[in-house]
Design the sequence.
């Protein structure tokens, strides 16, 4: 049994699939009683879908994670009707569900330019309110990337992804087509003895040049974003896609897959990842596996095996490297355990982070009330 854990040190958790924000609509402007003037309404806060935005970019750009609409202008002798406050439009990724802290869905961002109002501005002071304005809505919201599966299988054709999905999903896999755009990933459910279920997606379509939309490139890579973790699948003996394409060893396949993800969106290589080295039933598989293990432990030393345009900026770090044979069943149970362990680790980290965030919010509100 081969088990390689964390081949080199790297901080995990940089890829975000959920984010908690504080939003508040702008306050309305004061009315002018003696002239019957009406204050301007406060600006609203909107989430707007943008193609190139990610949750990590929102967090990095706005570390305070606070978004407030503009205040409405007071009514004055020169302008009896106060000017409306400016809306605050926050760019967010496509494929987001927007919810309140208690799980109520406010809306979804399914396509570029979709909009969801998350905090309405307060009303300006008027005769009805004795010319007193109201404050805007204030709440915490959550942005959740709509995931199609817990784990996404990443590999080139003939790596054995479909066979592996069948093996992971037991002899009678629960496999169904998941319709999304024009590509239909296959989703299998991995069952555990404690009745825990983990969804695994076989995402077909990745070939060399996927990042520039060869084959089903962008459709495939878009789905990769919507899985919590990645499971790379490579043929231990390497592969050749066609007679006109170069033969790729297992090590080259790993680096080329990493490069394709990196060129499409660098943050994808920050996702937690595991590596399944498939087809261990083939001749010379053990020898090839040992060679791959050595190369993965010191990838920089073997970079000369790769063309310059195939070398990724950052080599992928795998939490577990597991040799398997989807055909014979060798290593499948161990792979299931590794997948479960990796997902459980992240779930524990997320729970701790969420509790810490709520505690900080309570302290902040307590300080404001002093």
Sequence:
């Amino acid at each position: 049994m081969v088990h390689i854990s964390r081949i080199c040190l790297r901080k995990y958790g940089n890829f975000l699939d959920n984010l908690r924000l504080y939003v508040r609509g702008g306050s309305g402007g004061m009315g002018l009683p003696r002239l019957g003037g009406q204050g301007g309404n406060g600006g609203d806060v909107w989430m707007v879908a943008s193609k190139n935005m990610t949750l990590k970019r929102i967090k990095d750009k706005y570390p305070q994670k606070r978004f407030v609409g503009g205040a409405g202008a007071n009514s004055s002798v020169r302008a009896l009707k106060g000017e409306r406050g400016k809306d605050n439009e926050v760019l967010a990724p496509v494929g987001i569900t927007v919810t309140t802290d208690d799980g109520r869905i406010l809306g979804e961002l399914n396509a570029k330019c979709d909009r969801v109002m998350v905090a309405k501005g307060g009303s300006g002071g008027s005769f009805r309110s004795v010319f007193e304005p109201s404050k805007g809505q204030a709440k915490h919201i959550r942005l959740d990337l709509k995931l199609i599966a817990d784990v996404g299988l990443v590999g080139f054709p003939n790596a054995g992804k479909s066979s592996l999905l069948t093996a992971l999903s037991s002899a009678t896999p629960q496999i169904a087509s998941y319709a999304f755009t024009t590509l239909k990933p296959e989703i299998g459910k991995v069952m555990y003895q404690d009745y825990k279920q983990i969804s695994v997606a076989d995402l077909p379509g990745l070939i060399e040049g996927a990042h520039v939309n060869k084959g089903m490139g962008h459709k495939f890579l878009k789905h990769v974003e919507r899985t919590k973790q990645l499971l790379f699948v490579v043929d231990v003996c390497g592969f050749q896609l066609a007679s006109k394409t170069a033969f790729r060893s297992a090590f080259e396949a790993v680096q080329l897959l990493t490069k394709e993800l990196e060129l499409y969106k660098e943050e994808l290589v920050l996702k937690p990842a595991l590596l399944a080295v498939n087809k261990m039933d083939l001749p010379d598989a053990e020898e090839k596996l040992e060679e791959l293990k050595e190369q993965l432990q010191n990838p920089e030393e073997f970079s000369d095996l790769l063309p310059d345009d195939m070398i990724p900026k950052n080599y992928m770090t795998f939490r577990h490297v597991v040799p398997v044979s989807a055909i014979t069943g060798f290593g499948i149970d161990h792979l299931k355990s590794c997948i479960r362990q990796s997902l459980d680790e992240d779930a524990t980290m997320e729970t701790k982070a969420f509790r810490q965030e709520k505690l900080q919010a309570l302290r902040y509100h307590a300080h404001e009330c002093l």
Remarks:
- Helices lie at 55-61, 161-168, 217-224, 250-264, 285-297, 332-369.
- Residues 1-13, 171-183, 208-217 have pLDDT under 50 and may be disordered.
